[in-house]
């Protein structure tokens, strides 16, 4: 049942190329994104005032990627909320808004409550759900299924990849319909997404490196993830993955926010995992790496292959800035989360294996959180 893998989590990480392919292929027609199956019309896409994305845990992180990509391409405002906060914060939503609820299981209690609130206020609700016929799928006004197949491991991996892939399709479609990108650009971006399953496969080449780093992380009581922009969203997901299965405390920080408090945690040997795939922000992020390195951090960087990142040096000391570098395929910035997620998942996986914990069934957690 584990298909030759030692754990479901590893099997599911490796299923990501296929899961993404199955999710996006039927939704690409003549090179363009096609989401008409759920009843989302061009008129609707043109008229939404605002978009709210509501979810929990990993699904919420897919929403953060969605926000970034939708705002960047379609220039419409997107707010991302944790469902348990959204449902009690009296959000300003109404009939002109689109509320997207993202859930692998389709049964998460808080996400379901958020859906009910959105419907009561007259907003249109689009569910992005993996489990067919689940409550959230049934109760949403429109549903786009992700086709990851059953996800057994409590730590969500392939569900995240497919949720992101739907976010991309939606962003491209919204941008095209709202006139912020033309047909040529929409086709080009859709083509880039269509080639992503192959790139995810290539990203798996970091396996050995992640295993090696994972075996070193086991002695750490705590570590930090940092990143900017899309890399920040990914670092949040990396941190969640690590803490839920390895029981190592970690937190994710926007790299530029370090100086406002968190950098005081850095002392000799504290691991800092820096996600640095966004070209425009690279120099800024690298300067944050040198700041933590100067205070003794063990620096691990996830960056683009061949981006020159491997040669970054600590200018003052003339020593390498990066203790361990993990490279992923060098694609355009906006699509990088689709491949960057792989090493973050593998780092969490191998650290946990090295610790000897139950990877697929971490303590205190359930696969589906059906109570508040
Ligand atoms: O089934 P859902 O996508 O609604 O679940 C949401 C979260 O409970 C879930 O993503 C959780 O954070 C995972 N264990 C993370 O790996």
Automatic annotation (TrEMBL):
It catalyses: D-fructose 6-phosphate + L-glutamine = D-glucosamine 6-phosphate + L-glutamate. It is found in: Cytoplasm. It comes from Eubacterium uniforme. Its EC number is 2.6.1.16. The keyword Transport does not apply. The gene is glmS. The keyword Membrane does not apply. Residues 40-180, 213-362 form the SIS domain. One of its GO terms (molecular function) is carbohydrate derivative binding. This is Glutamine--fructose-6-phosphate aminotransferase [isomerizing]. It is an enzyme of class 2 (transferase). Keywords: Aminotransferase, Cytoplasm, Glutamine amidotransferase, Repeat, Transferase. It comes from the Bacteria. The chain holds residues 243 to 614 of 614 of the full protein. The active site is at residue 367. Catalyzes the first step in hexosamine metabolism, converting fructose-6P into glucosamine-6P using glutamine as a nitrogen source.
